[in-house]
Design goal:
Layout: E1 11-12, E2 41-42, H1 44-56, H2 82-89, E3 95-100, E4 109-111, E5 116-121, E6 124-126, H3 133-138, H4 143-166, H5 177-188, H6 202-231, H7 242-248, E7 251-254, H8 269-276, E8 278-280, H9 283-292, E9 296-299, E10 315-317, E11 323-332, H10 338-350, H11 353-360
Parallel strand pairs: 7-8, 7-9
Antiparallel strand pairs: 1-2, 3-11, 4-11, 5-11, 6-10
Helix pairs in contact: 1-10, 4-5, 4-6, 7-8
Length: 371
């Protein structure tokens, strides 16, 4: 059997597998000799192999694919790459990494029954940057609230100007509206207002008191909302549609040949432009472009996209996914184990064990798991 590191279903013991750059392992480089390229895993794939071993009473030999640690594709001139090459050549009786149910380019290998009912093919992009502080402060209130505050200020300035004109008999020249606006602004921002004309009349005092009460209410609401925003910083809008992804101009990398043609076959101008930007790239290039340069998007081969992959919140899953596909293991068409494997897998699916193993994979690599 072949099995390669693949988050979250096949994680090597003693290693932390990066969820996007799947071969970014914290272990020594893998030996080149395929006979000794054996690894112990935990996760759903390991548990399935253990269940097959116990049910069918055999001792499986789990190795990495001979050439590339990926699902692989059939080549136009014959032959194949990755785990598919081992299955077709007879070097492996099964490829024990769930592969999405898309045409493999050959009829000499077949899928077993699906072990993942809904594997969403989505694009992962860098998280949008934080909003500047001045934009964050302006977002404390809605546009309608800011319009109400400004309208109240101008209306109060006009009323105060009328009061000043009425009581300006002792002044040598008439009051200016700009002075009235400046004096009311002191009331609105709760600055010292000792320089205001003496408020001799009750109407003037009531007006000044109403301005102060209004400003206290607004400032209290502003401070409360500002504390909430500062403790939970806001980001600019993330890329959530394929149109946004196209307009962003970023290149799109895939982690395996299986998804190199993810945007092909759809008669859409947006999809065709995205297909022209898609390329197969090594993990070190993806990691640099996604996390450091922040100018690269990636389509992971198999990820549970319902939750974030990055504990630091540096990446975002585009809301509009490319497809929702099932995933299954692969065996040779004439495999004598096909029916027995499907019987065991059917029992695991019916019992809900596959979903359970996927849920508990992140509990920690120190847990005792089969494989």
């Amino acid at each position: 059997m072949t099995m390669f590191p693949n988050y979250p279903t096949a994680i090597p013991r003693g290693a932390k597998l990066h969820p996007v750059c799947k071969d970014e392992l914290d272990i020594d480089p893998l030996p080149l000799d395929p006979d000794v390229r054996k690894m112990k895993y935990y996760g759903m794939d390991s548990e399935v192999v253990t269940a097959l071993r116990k049910s069918l009473n055999f001792d499986p030999q789990v190795r990495l694919p001979h050439n590339l640690p990926e699902h692989g594709v059939a080549l136009p001139g014959g032959g194949a790459t990755g785990a598919l090459a081992d299955v077709l050549s007879g070097a492996a009786d099964a490829a024990m990494n769930p592969r999405m149910l898309v045409h493999m380019g050959t009829t000499d290998a077949v899928f077993l029954m699906p072990v993942v009912s809904r594997s969403r093919v989505c694009v992962v992009v860098p998280r949008a940057p934080l909003l500047p502080f001045y934009k964050t402060a302006l977002r404390v209130f809605t546009v309608e609230a800011w319009a109400t505050i400004l309208s109240s200020y101008f209306a109060s300035s006009l009323c105060w100007h009328v009061f000043r004109k009425i009581y300006a008999s002792s002044e040598r020249r008439g009051p200016r509206f700009s002075d009235s606006m400046r004096q009311v602004l002191k009331l609105f921002v709760t600055l010292p207002y000792s320089s205001l004309p003496s408020l001799q009349r009750v109407s003037s005092r009531m007006f000044a008191a109403s301005c102060l009460i209004f400003s206290i209410i607004v400032f209290s609401a502003f401070q409360g909302s500002l504390v909430k925003i500062l403790t939970s910083p806001e980001h600019s809008p993330d890329i959530d549609t394929l149109e946004d992804l196209d307009e962003s101009g970023v290149s799109i990398a895939v982690t395996g040949t299986l998804l190199a043609t993810a945007f092909n076959g759809v008669d859409s101008a947006v999809w065709k432009r995205l297909a022209s930007k898609t390329m197969l790239a090594p993990s070190y290039y993806i990691k640099k472009g996604l996390f450091e340069d922040r100018n690269l998007a990636v389509i992971p081969e198999y990820l549970p996209v319902e939750e974030s992959y990055d504990s630091e919140g540096r990446i975002h899953v585009v809301g509009e996914c490319l497809a929702t596909l099932a995933a299954a293991y692969v065996v040779p068409r004439q495999s004598p184990y096909r029916q027995q494997f499907e019987t065991v897998i059917a029992r695991l699916v019916e019992g809900g064990l596959l979903a359970h193993w996927n849920d508990v994979t992140g509990a920690g690599e120190d847990e005792e798991k089969g494989g």
